[in-house]
From TrEMBL, chains A, B:
Entry keyword set: Aminoacyl-tRNA synthetase, ATP-binding, Cytoplasm, Ligase, Nucleotide-binding, Protein biosynthesis
Lineage: superkingdom: Bacteria
Species for this entry: Dyella lutea
Chain ranges of the Aminoacyl-transfer RNA synthetases class-II family profile domain: 24-377
GO MF assignments: histidine-tRNA ligase activity
Name of the protein described by the UniProt record: Histidine--tRNA ligase
Gene name of this polypeptide: hisS
Assigned protein family: Belongs to the class-II aminoacyl-tRNA synthetase family.
Substrates-to-products reaction catalysed: tRNA(His) + L-histidine + ATP = L-histidyl-tRNA(His) + AMP + diphosphate + H(+)
Enzyme class: ligase
Pfam family, one: HGTP_anticodon
InterPro entries noted in UniProt: aa-tRNA-synth_II, aa-tRNA-synth_II/BPL/LPL, Anticodon-bd, Anticodon-bd_dom_sf, His-tRNA-ligase, HisRS-like_core, HisRS/HisZ, HisRS_anticodon
Major localization listed first in the record, in broad terms: cytoplasm
Subcellular location: Cytoplasm
Coiled-coil annotated spans: none
Length: 467, 467
């Protein structure tokens, strides 16, 4: 039989075990922190009805959707024809984010949920992107959202940065800054400058969002060009506005005041930002970790108030590692209920890939704490007894079950990232001791059989702290 | 705008948060135990190339496969035509199990893996099943496998029941029995009865697998009927063989001996089973939890030696909750390397669904440990300070951020499965205490602010033990 080449499609990130362990640790940190703030888990199916998935979106998003059909349904000739002639949209599709499934979930289960509904969701999503370095067709999103029924206090907008702070501090990725803005403030400021049309405001907002990528000159040229036709003066005021950054809480409040009076939307946005900034401190986020950044717009029309982006101070090239904001109504396409919310998303696959690229991921350590070697096949029951004890004490233990040279067994442990190796030879068994080898420190010691668990716990705790 | 009905396709299990928490706890128990035995995590993409996925399988499996196409590729007219006229298989498909992706993974990354390669994988798989109660189109599989390079000691076949025992004991689903058999023993016994053709042996084996569902008379009639043409005597010997069950280790060994001498395959199977049974004890599995059951065949041609099924003693109608076995060569379709292995799979979605149906799942408790109520909006900073402390101590804490009646806040906690509620009113703040309400026990007590964490830890530990 000819062999089929073993391969995966481009745009997926498949990891070797030690890398997967590092990835899993990040997932665990995120989950632990989401739960610590009282967010509840949900999971939704990967496959959704395409009419449910594609109510809102069009254009770019729709072209990237993966459609799904089972071979069973392919048999129905009329469906095939419809598909071939493009007369109907296929029935099923893979989700491309977690927000649309959340909207569907909340609308579907509304009567069974308690509001404010605080949910987290950490699952993979699918986008048929063009294959390109750093672009993923399958990737994890780790989302939280708080959904209110009819209304949702602005205070929740201040809780979100506390969650971000808690997550990224524990992810241990160096200094980071949670950058904040408010869409009402932006639109209100544009209105103050004479841009009254809501659609025009959105277009300006999208232009401004390109500031970091394209630079001020490009944005100024576009705004004063044919498409927008703004005066140089107005364009310059917009550019000055979006270049506002704060260096402390007081500085942020001062800079908001310095924008001068404006129309209602602007005043509302400013009041919201001030309340949020004022509360963040009480939520335990230090001033060093958040800032006003009036260029943050987030491309999506979806957001209506507070918006967030989080950047790593020492790795600006990575861009935002956690983004989100406040929206007016989650699920208008499925329900008449008014469901405002606020949320964020961490694109973990891309983040992991970038952090690894930047050398910030430690992938040296296995989940296996201890390898019990096999010196003498006849002593296997003794090795297994030790392993049973260790496992009962919560220590992840692998036993070598194939006979082989001890040196080869050490090599296996080393290669597999297992730090501690136990040796129970004739000597050790006679003396009632165990030899513990620390492959990282290239050190070893003997310990009495009855003291083994205690000794290993100390070693493992030290290893966890010291690395 | 007309509303789109919010709904999911049949055959998926979407859970409300408290149910999701119970499900997640099961996933965590399984993962923890897999890791405790030194299995390493991997995850593979949901989407695979269909030529990779469908090398081996045909028939039933192929009809159940979900094929995938992105809208981008749908635009290519020739592909559409090919699809419509069924001239080529679509390029991408969703995995229908974790075994084929494992084979592909091991073949693809062979040079980067250490052997024996011990991996666990807990992900969802997809099958386009006919919609039917208890049949899932999307479901979790939680698999472990040990893969050897060239060879793999039979001892690993004895480790597998130890993992099963460890998992199901902690899942807390009542008494269970790991039932074992060996395909070599079965085929060798059939050979002893004069059924020499390997294919014929497989067909008998598949008939025998229906014993529990169809009963002995049905199987006897089939074996003596036209298709098989066996004598009544041979059929009866087969039925006697497959009705062998052991009640203890000694009984198992005795019953294996009582089968009499047989051809080489039978002797090999018996020797393997004896070695496995003999070692299981050293792996710490009590005699009460495993048994010989010579009717266990597992339908798949795939298995070549030891086979396992695990049943719940008090819920036989649930059937096997964890099955697997030994196979000769994992990835022959992708690589010339000889990769024998042994593994098991837990179909967690179905298991959860069945256990819930049988009333064996407790879904009353949230992941949120504590709700901090809001008596006085002006005291919000004090409430947040308490929450920050609790979260730093690892206690999952939600703070009520919307003003509202206290009674309504208690109701919210109760409905959300949050057991402990903190009240910090004027009184408490003046006295430097906190009132802790236990909604489960309908009890409450005051505790000094500085003693709060300690007191809550005691309560939470008690709650975890006592339920």
């Amino acid at each position: 039989m000819a062999l089929t080449p073993a391969r995966t499609m481009p745009g997926v990130l498949e990891l070797l075990p030690l890398d997967q362990i590092a990835f899993q640790r990040m997932l665990d940190v995120i989950r632990r922190n989401y739960e610590r703030f009282g967010f509840l888990p949900i999971e939704t199916p990967v496959i959704e009805y395409s009419d449910v998935l594609l109510t809102k979106s069009g254009g770019e998003t729709e072209r990237q959707v993966y459609f799904v059909q089972s071979t069973g349904s392919l048999n129905a000739a009329e469906k095939m024809n419809a598909l071939a002639t493009n007369t109907t949209v296929p029935e099923l599709a893979l989700r491309f984010d977690l927000t649309v499934p959340l909207a569907r979930y909340v609308a579907e289960h509304e009567r069974d949920l308690s509001f404010p509904f605080r949910r987290y969701q950490m699952q993979r999503v699918y986008r048929g992107e063009r294959a390109q370095r750093g672009r993923f067709r399958e990737f994890y999103q780790c989302d939280i959202d708080v959904i209110g029924k009819d209304s949702l206090s602005i205070r929740y907008d201040a809780e979100v940065p506390a969650v971000i702070y808690s997550v990224f501090r524990e992810l241990n990725v160096g200094a980071f800054t949670i950058q904040m803005n408010n869409r009402k403030l932006m639109r209100g400021y544009f209105e103050k400058l004479g841009i009254n049309d809501a659609e025009q405001q959105m277009l300006v907002l999208r232009e401004v969002d390109k500031l970091d990528k394209r630079g001020a000159d490009y944005v100024r040229d576009t705004l004063t060009g044919e498409a927008f036709g703004l005066s140089v003066e107005v364009a310059n005021q917009i550019l000055a506005f979006v270049q506002v950054r704060s260096t402390s809480l007081k500085d942020a409040l001062d800079k908001l005041d310095a924008l001068g009076e404006g129309p209602e939307a602007m005043e509302q946005g400013r009041a919201e930002l001030k309340e949020v900034l004022g509360l963040i401190h009480a939520f335990g986020v230090p001033e060093t970790h958040y800032a006003l950044n009036l260029s943050i717009a987030r491309g999506l029309d979806y957001y209506t108030g507070t918006v967030y982006e989080t950047t790593l101070n020492d790795h600006p090239q990575i861009g935002s590692v956690c983004s989100g904001g406040r929206y007016e109504n989650l699920a208008g396409q499925y329900t008449k209920s008014h469901l405002p919310g606020v949320g964020i998303s961490i694109g973990l696959t891309r983040l992991y890939w970038q952090l690894r690229d930047a050398g910030l991921i430690n992938t040296a350590q296995s989940t296996v704490d201890v390898l019990v070697t096999q010196m003498d096949p006849a002593q296997l029951p003794a090795y297994l007894a030790v392993a049973n004890e260790l496992r009962s004490a919560g220590i992840a233990t692998e036993v070598v079950l194939e006979a082989g040279k001890l040196g080869k067994q050490f090599k296996y442990a080393d290669r597999a990232g297992i730090r501690f190796v136990l040796v129970l030879g004739e000597n050790e068994l006679a003396k009632g001791v165990v030899t513990v080898k620390d492959l990282r420190r290239e050190d070893q010691f003997e310990v009495a059989r009855g003291e083994l668990i205690k000794a290993l716990r100390v070693e493992l705790e030290q290893a966890a702290v010291m690395g």
